[in-house]
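Thread: Newbie trying to understand structure tokens

Hi all, I'm a second-year student working on a class project, and my supervisor (Dr. K.) asked me to get a predicted structure for one chain before our next meeting. I've only ever worked with sequences, so writing a 3D structure as a token string is new to me. If someone could post the tokens and maybe explain what I'm looking at, I'd be very grateful. Here's the chain:
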Amino acid sequence: MINRVFHPIGQGAFYSENHIGFNIVYDCGSSGKKRIAENVVKQSFLPNATIDILFISHFDSDHVNRIPVLTNNFKIKNVILPLLHPEDKVLLINIYKALGRTDIATLIETPEDIFGNDTNIIYVDISETDKEINEGSINIENLTNGQIIRSLTELLAVDYDWMFVPHNYLHYERNLKLKNLFLQYDLDIDRVKTDLGYALYHRNDIKNVYKKLNGGINENSMFVYSGPIGDNHSFYTKHLLDQNGRVGCIYSGDADFNRVNIRNVFARYWDKVGTIQVPHHGDVKCYNDLFFDGRSYFCPISVGENGYGHPSSAVIQSILSNNSIPILVTEKNSSTFRQYIAKRN
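---
Reply by user tm_fold:
Sure, no problem. This is what the structure looks like when written as tokens:
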């Protein structure tokens, strides 16, 4: 039995899967009340459990700021991060240091300081395309510390007949917005990259840039497809609409469906996809309905109290009109969305 959970973290992201003792997590953060969010994370696994893979989509605070709760309560074997261009990496580090978020700066700069020497840190290289590419496969047990894998490499949990396929794309338009805002505030982006003192001196202007981007200063965002290996159609969803064995899920973080055609990227797995996490808390600017194909999909949206209008009523209406089911996962325990996936004998 596979237990997939969209946890009630509010305005953030925290999703997990348990495969008979094999655990994965996708993102772990929230902008909601700290104590409530931390309790949700602590209660998500049995005491002293092992998380076999922690996927981090990007480095916005509301997707990573509860990771210390994971590290303090559970053992993490592998962390899989989007690889950053060296210049972009330095820029993010200095911006977060100027914002006083040394925790996130450390996560980007030296993640081993967060997770310790017993955790493998693996990076997913940047993809320049939204077309499907077969990059081969790796048994999860063979992942090694410091390894860089190509986007769309299949990570195989052979013992459980399951795979995870990360796709790291670069959001060039977000980069352009960041540069334009730096110009508006008369900030020298090159000096922010190379001179931490300059960044600290202009911390108030950098905070204003950050607010105008709603925290979205990260150019990278990593999707993950989770579903059966190969042509295995023996899995089915219990207690919910079966969807003819479409038990696969696409986690999207804060990605932009207008920049990445997920049906193209994950074309070889699409007939197994039945659940699609709606990105960026249901923000209409990051959404389109081009991935719908007449079939029904579960569409969970992580959202809490916010001043951004999330989730957009237009997004909800679009999902419903496409024969699919929007599921709001809030701070309330009763909003937890669980999927139980079994395998036919």
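A couple of things are worth pointing out once you decode it. The chain has twelve helices and 18 strands. The CA atoms of residues 99 and 203 lie 6 Å apart. Feel free to ask follow-ups in this thread.
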